Amino acid sequence: MAERRGRCCPPMDLLRSEPMHLVQVIIPIESAHQTVANLGDLGLIQFKDLNAEKSPFQRTYATQIKRCAEMARKLRFFKDQMSKAGLSPSIKSVSRVDIDMDDLEVKLGELEAELIELNANGEKLQRTYNELVEYKLVLGKAGEFFHSALSTAQQIEFGSQQTGEESLDTPLLMEQEMTTDTSKQVKLGFLTGLVPRDKSMAFERIIFRATRGNVFLKQAVLEDPVIDPVTGEKVEKNVFLIFYSGEKVKNKIIKICEAFGANRYPLPEDMGKQVLMVTEVSGRLSELKTTVDTGAQLRRNLLLTIAEQYDQWNLLVMREKSIYHTLNMLSIDVTKKCLVAEGWSPVFATKQIQDALQRATFDSNSQVGAIFQILHTKESPPTYFRTNKFTSSFQEIVDAYGVAKYREANPAVFTIVTFPFLFAVMFGDWGHGICLLLGALYFIIRERKLSSQKLGDIAEMTFGGRYVIVMMALFSIYTGLIYNEFFSVPFELFGRSAYACRDLSCRDATTAGLIKVGDTYPFGVDPVWHGSRSELPFLNSLKMKMSILLGVAQMNLGILLSYFNAKFFRSSLNIWFQFVPQMIFLNSLFGYLSLLIIIKWCTGSKADLYHVMIYMFLSPTDEIGENQLFVGQKNVQLVLLLLALVAVPWMLFPKPLILKKQHQNRHQGQSYMPLHGTEDTLLLDTTHDSHDHDEFEFSEVFVHQLIHTIEFVLGAVSNTASYLRLWALSLAHSELSSVFYEKVLLLSLGYNNVLILIVGIIVFVFATVGVLLVMETLSAFLHALRLHWVEFQNKFYEGDGYKFHPFSFSLLGDEEE
Q: Its domain of life (predicted)?
């Protein structure tokens, strides 16, 4: 045994969790970092927090964790910048790279400073560029205002010269009036800029009200959106030109522009200067465009350099941070020269851990090696099942109900077969099963590629359960062949039907019935049953009885596993006063019913099993009459009923009384427990329940046993009835499939119209996929899940353990997500 446990990879045992022990490692300070790193690579030890009373800031390596957190922040900043630039870290195998953390910290700081500077310069240049673009648009549109106004004025002047009226140069007032009233001359000013189009109407209205209409405002719509210099977003804008009179009005207009986010730009009055300004702005725009593009290229090159090594840096920082987190869980020796670590590890990993400690001592050039020793404790160890990619999804189904107690029988071993089988009983159709199989095989064939991608929630869940779906599909094909249903259509796959019509025309095949002319159909349901008037009564009877047989068999398996648990934990009390009466009670009633079903099938009897079971309780001494299936049935029923009645107090009274007697004897010194070897210490400790403590409350123990007894007695009835869901869902699936086939596909075929046929096929495909392959699959999955969690596992499974979470670098990526 010791030789087997000492091997590197002993055979995987899924029925019982791996034997665990509590280990203590005393590590010199100089080799502590390398030791924890080696143990993280190994990933087979779960450290206990020996500094739980200290806050994170009071621990020894708080400073190092802050450094790692700061580096992680910089890496997150880099990742955010890369995602904005449309880049992603280079996907390649991340190998171990020896990078000094101090050098990495300096390098990350320099890269962050350079990137921040590039971002700031780029934003400043981009803002200036966007302002110049707006300025150019304002110059163009406002210039058009002035140009059109000047053209209009010249046309008016030309017209007045033709008619002999006064020209533009003719003063409106006489020279005497002008010289005498110069204080009344009014000088008009103007403002130009851009305002968001969605605010333009409100902008115009507010200006009109604020100035009491003493302004002239004109707007022009820009065809294309422009990038706002402040927000950096594309916005649809209008160019505005406002003429005003007076400084007070100007100040009001400026405040309103600021409130509406309208950008103002200067505009010279002289037309010649406007043309020069347009030329100057265009030249500056071309220069800025070149500068912005150069800066963007520099930034992209820097981000590409970061992307090449991002994964390596990120992994290194996560490793260092997890190492220091683990070191903070270790207690420091009084001499300040050693760290003391405690944790759980599998027994088979002892040699690997010792080798890792020796390598750490050698790599760190430590003069003193780490000390490894096994501690003996009464604590319950964590539960650790070594699974592979096939068994892990089934283990997750069980763990979702509750993690197995240490060394408790693991339902996942049986769930691998029973779960997909019970699903298939409800889903049985080999056409639908093939569709499920093809979908699951797609995920399995591309699992290497898909496992490295970020999938959606539903796709991720489906991908994680791909092997469960394969098993469900295979069993669905099997049960579909038994039910003889391919999208509800029967086939003569295993030979010809055993039945034929009464006449050659077969007009009464579905009304007057059929006659047997050959041997019984060799496998599954005879195809001739489908469509006959006896189909539903026959299949209902078959599936209902089959559901009871499967349910009683699985519940018996659960009770049998409780025996193996009790035997493994050396609890004879649970064997004699829990397992035995439970087996007697269940099989006296429903085991007997299952036997009657099998006898009826074998003999072809027409006995009414409902009548037999009901009057077995109501009138056990009455004659059975025509419902008798075998000789001596009445006496057998009396004995079974008596055994069922005896089993109830057998479960209820002896166990609490014996526990009380054992407690009294233990405290009176009348019984002694022999000393055991260290190897069995943990095993025996885990069998001690709450009754082994100094405080023993008989009333609590008795009430607990009473609840357990009532739960089992009532559960035996309700759980058996619960398995009838296998019959109900199988019938529903079959009828839905038949409706879609007959009322959609066959109906569209009967019209002899290509368009109707295409529509019918599309509706049939979508109904089959949406209802039968998605909704019905989910429904059958949930019902099979309930049957395992409630009807099966509650017979033996406590599920009050806790999972083994080792310190492992391979889990860092999952924790980050």
A: Eukaryota
What angle is formed at CA 387 by the lines to CA 385 and CA 393, rounded to 5 degrees? 110
pLDDT given for residue 107 in this prediction: 94
Say which amino acid occupies 150.
L
Closest CA to 307 of 116, 118, 80, 100: 80
Burial class of 415 by CB neighbour count within 10 A (0 to 12, 13 to 18, 19+): buried
In this structure, the chain runs to a length of 817
Q: Using alpha carbons, list the distances in angstroms from residue 678 to 1, 18, 87, 320, 618.
A: 15, 17, 58, 37, 57
Q: Which two tokens stand for residue 424?
A: 């298939």
Residue 289, Cβ density class (10 Å: 0-12 exposed, 13-18 middle, ≥19 buried): middle
How far is 439 from 443, CA to CA, in rounded Å?
7
Of 786, 13, 11, 4, the residue nearest 401 (C-alpha): 786
Report the SS3 class of residue 322: helix
pLDDT grade for 425, boundaries at 50, 70 and 90: very high
Number of H helices and number of E strands within the chain?
29, 13
413: phi then psi, degrees, rounded to nearest 5: -60, -45
**In which residue are the tokens 């302002």 written?**
131
| Confidence check: pLDDT of 670 > 80 | no
pLDDT for the residue 669: 56
pLDDT digits (tens, 9 = 90+) for 357-401: 999 999 998 888 899 999 999 999 999 999 999 999 999 999 999
Q: Around Cβ 814, how many Cβ atoms within 10 Å?
A: 8
Asked if the model's pLDDT at residue 685 lies above 60, the reply is no
The SS3 of residue 724 is coil
Angstrom distance (rounded) from CA 45 to CA 27:
15
H or E stretch at 217: strand 216-221
Q: Where are the beta strands (DSSP E) in 391-527?
A: 499-500, 515-516
**Helix, strand, or coil here: 429?**
coil
Structure tokens at 682: 């943990």
Nearest to 327 by CA among 41, 57, 64, 44: 64
pLDDT confidence tier of residue 269, bands split at 50, 70 and 90? confident
Look up residue 787 and give its DSSP letter. I
Report the chain's terminal Cα–Cα distance, integer Å.
41
Burial class (CB in 10 A: 0-12, 13-18, 19+), 677: exposed
What is this structure's pTM?
0.80
Per residue in 565-607, pLDDT (tens digit) is 999 999 999 999 999 999 999 999 999 999 999 999 999 888 9
Query: Cα–Cα distance between 373 and 608 in angstroms, integer?
Result: 68
* Lookup: tokens for 529: 């049953």
- Do residues 80 and 306 make contact, with C-beta atoms less than 8 angstroms apart? no
Label residue 517 left, alpha or beta by phi (over 0 means left) and psi (-120 to 50 means alpha).
alpha
Rounded to an integer, what distance in angstroms lies between the CA atom of residue 413 and that of residue 402?
A: 15
- Residues 470 and 441: beta-carbon distance below 8 Å: yes
CA distance linking residue 670 with residue 68, whole number of Å: 61
And the tokens for 596? 């009657």
Can you tell me which residue has the tokens 């670098």? 809
| Least confident stretch, 110-124, 134-148, 735-749 | 134-148
